[in-house]
Amino acid sequence: MSTAKKEYKRVTVKSLIEMKQNGEKISMLTAYDYSMAKIVDAAQVDVILVGDSASNVIAGHETTLPITLDQMIYHASSVVRAAKRALVVVDIPFGSYQSDSKEALRSAIRIMKESGGHAVKVEGGIEIKDSVKRILQAGIPVMGHLGLTPQSIYKFGTYTVRAKEEQEAKKLKEDAKMLEELGCFGLVLEKIPAALAQEVAESVSIPIIGIGAGGGVDGQVLVVHDLLGMTHEFNPRFLRRYMNLYDEMGNAISQYVEDVKSKDFPNDREQY
Q1: Is 190 assigned a catalytic role?
Q2: Cα–Cα distance measured from residue 108 to residue 211, given in angstroms and rounded to the nearest whole number
Q3: pLDDT for res 2
Q4: ∠ CA 253-255-260 to the nearest 5 degrees?
Q5: Cis omega (within 30 of 0) for bond into 93
Q6: CA dist 247 → 257, 260, 270 (Å)
Q7: Which position has the higher pLDDT, 200 or 232?
Q8: Which of 53, 130, 145, 174 is 20 to 30 Å from 180 by CA-CA measure?
């Protein structure tokens, strides 16, 4: 049975729980700067993820590992200044929470205080239980991330689909339940079989956001640069490109260069 979509002036953690309960899918996109976040927020995206994927799409690194906590805070504070409606979730970067729960809390507090973000996201299950618990005890909302966890890419050795084997799928389901019981408000499931993702979504009360995890979850997330076609080398099956800005921007810039060289720009109307 369909239900009327509720209008949210400001999306909160509670809003996402309501959306799941009402059967309304949750939209989530990345943003890393003020200008892009302003566009994403105005388009009524529910959640803006300030992802450590900034390491790839903004800084050009091969993995998400090099980005620092200071850099994440810089990106997050830029996004927060633009977001008037969306919930802003900030990735805690690699090395800032995994081994020491006290360091995890310090990292989360810095993100919340210095960026103004609304929640943090961490990757992993039982291995980071103590860190998640300590952050939650401080009153900071936490989103989990299971399946393909890019911060562990050198452990996996590949970006292929995770949890296809029974043992890994069993652990993923156990980790999801554990994160829910600890108090996480939601989970991202990345690049796992659609049937498994749907099973997890139906087994927990918190929203499950998928990326390459099929349509049976509670919402979807993509990297905004991929969605807009600003990147063109990355072509996974789960990506739908809604524009081809790589070519369109390139053509516009080439035209500008030509106009400058030919003295067509600026013309009489474009000068004082």
Answers
A1: yes
A2: 24
A3: 46
A4: 95
A5: no
A6: 15, 20, 26
A7: 200
A8: 53
Say whether pLDDT at 153 is over 80.
no
Q: Which of 24, 123, 180, 190 is catalytic?
A: 190
* pLDDT value at residue 1: 39
Nearest residue to 63 via CA among 51, 53, 71, 76:
53
Residue in 44, 133, 73 with CA at minimum distance from that of residue 97: 133
Q: Which residues 6+ apart lie within 8 Å of 171 measured at CB?
A: 125, 126
**More confident: 84 or 5:** 84
User: In 3D, which of 131, 135, 160 has the Cα closest to residue 147?
Assistant: 160
Give the HSE-up count for residue 125: Cα atoms under 13 Å, Cβ half-sphere.
Answer: 16
> What one-character DSSP code corresponds to residue 128?
G
Confidence of residue 234 (pLDDT cuts 50, 70, 90): confident
State the Cα–Cα distance between residues 221 and 223, nearest whole angstrom: 7
Mean pLDDT estimate for the chain = 95
| Cβ neighbour number for residue 38 with a 10 Å cutoff | 16
> At residue 144, what are phi and psi to the nearest 5 degrees?
-90, 175
C-alpha angle 198-87-134 in degrees, rounded to nearest 5: 80
Q: Identify whether the C-beta of residue 185 lies closer than 8 Å to the C-beta of residue 169.
A: no
For the chain, how long is the longest CA-to-CA vector?
Answer: 70
Give the per-residue pLDDT at 249. 97
Domains of the chain: 13-241 (3.20.20.60), 244-272 (no CATH)
